[in-house]
Amino acid sequence: MDHFEYRDGMMHVEQVPMAEIAAAVGTPVYVYSTATLVRHVTVFREALGALTDPLIAFAVKANPNAAVLATLAKLGLGADVVSGGELLRALAAGIPADRVVFSGVGKTEAEMRLALERDIFQFNLESEPEAEMLNAVAVAMGKVARVAYRINPDVDAGTHAKISTGKSENKFGIPYDRALSAYDRAAQLPGLDVRGVAVHIGSQLTDLAPLEAAFVKMGRLIEALGDQGHAIRTADLGGGLGVPYDPALPVPPSPAAYGEMVTRVTRGWNVRLMFEPGRVIVGNAGALLSRVIRVKQGATQPFVIVDAAMNDLLRPSLYDAWHDIRAVKPNGKSTTANVVGPVCESGDTFATDRAMDHVKADDLVAFMTAGAYGATMANTYNSRALTPEVLVSGSQWAIVRPRPPIEALIEGDIIPDWVR
Ligand SMILES: Cc1ncc(COP(=O)(O)O)c(C=O)c1O
Ligand SMILES: N[C@@H](CCCC[NH3+])C(=O)O
């Protein structure tokens, strides 16, 4: 079976025909494994096995490819969306509207209207003015929106500052100590059915303690809201569980450990629990396949120049993120090198002083753990084409997003007559 797996402190690629895909599609290209996706969904679901009917809403932002979403839809997952575009993608892939939750601080009227038309399961509101706007839109449409407030618990998730969301200085959610008054006000709005609480403190969390601290606070809030006459029926605990990237670092808590903690902390809450996992489902189910263009000797160390760049995989430039880089056909030798792309920025660096497989021009390398926040964050900087995507399933594979023709890069812009 096709297979990416993290075990024995290493990423393993099995039965994924990387060389064949590279030859047929060209590089760089994202490659996803169906078997790994299925395994991750199964493991996550089993971890929550002690809960009654949890809603697992995949965070579409992590990987919005239609074939990936359709695979997850077939497995019964819902979707956590943050834009009208993500909502349409989720629905088009076969995720039913009654499993869709809409998060985000900047939902527009048009997005609210679209989500109300499609009758999604729940809106997670992030501010009082947003509640007023949604109420007005719903009333005008003769509808009632099911809502939760996302609470900012002011908990440090202990992850990279750019992917922390639960500190008071972050833009997300409403402050914990304003929750009671916000719920009181929202309960008076005829276009809202106030029924839930939500929390999400950040991504790539490698310690369960901050999550537990946030969830304990939510338990207290549910109780306080109940005392004040608000019947809370859903609690959305967000996503955030980290995945292994660097074999030298301790392995993050397992989904099983996370599920055990959630089951223990939420005992007696008497709500339907919701989850928004992204990275833990798709991260290690994908790799970015790239070819070495040439190896250049710098003043102090070799630069391995690959045909993928920061526009294809932004995480190393943006967050100093570490991705395992492996030769697809290792020659048994190793080296220490800087791995860089062709983009005209010094920040277009995937790895510095990296001990890695020895590679030469034309060799294929795989950037591992690239299934989450990879292709979805790609862009066309330096007029480079968007990265194509391939899905492998058993012995078959298919292009699930083709490489656009190079000509497409110069289409779209308009030169007005008065410029010519
Ligand atoms: C509201 C919300 N839900 C879910 C996620 C998914 O997080 P992760 O991919 O870390 O599981 C995010 C991203 O951090 C998010 O902002
Ligand atoms: N894009 C980030 C994760 C952001 C999570 C969304 N709130 C990453 O690549 O790690």
Automatic annotation (TrEMBL):
Q: Name one GO molecular function term.
A: diaminopimelate decarboxylase activity
What Gene3D superfamilies does the database record attribute to this sequence?
Alanine racemase, Lyase, Ornithine Decarboxylase, Chain A, domain 1
Task: Look up the record and give one Gene Ontology term from the biological process aspect.
Answer: lysine biosynthetic process via diaminopimelate
Q: How does it assemble?
A: Homodimer.
Where on the tree of life does the source sit, at the highest rank? Bacteria
Q: What does this protein do?
A: Specifically catalyzes the decarboxylation of meso-diaminopimelate (meso-DAP) to L-lysine.
Q: State the needed cofactors, names only.
A: pyridoxal 5'-phosphate
Q: Where does substrate bind?
A: R279, R315, Y319, E345, Y373
Would you tell me the protein name for this molecule?
Answer: Diaminopimelate decarboxylase
Write the signal peptide boundaries: none
Residues at the catalytic site: C344 (proton donor)
| Catalytically driven reaction(s) | meso-2,6-diaminopimelate + H(+) = L-lysine + CO2
Phylogenetic classification of the source organism: Bacteria, Pseudomonadati, Pseudomonadota, Alphaproteobacteria, Sphingomonadales
Tell me where in this chain the Orn/DAP/Arg decarboxylase 2 N-terminal domain is found: 36-282
**Ranges for the Orn/DAP/Arg decarboxylase 2 C-terminal domain?**
30-371
Pfam families documented for this protein: Orn_Arg_deC_N, Orn_DAP_Arg_deC
- State which pathway it belongs to: Amino-acid biosynthesis; L-lysine biosynthesis via DAP pathway; L-lysine from DL-2,6-diaminopimelate: step 1/1
Q: Is the keyword tRNA-binding in the record?
A: no
Give EC number(s), comma-separated: 4.1.1.20
Q: Which organism is it from?
A: Sphingobium algorifonticola
N6-(pyridoxal phosphate)lysine (modified residue): where?
K61
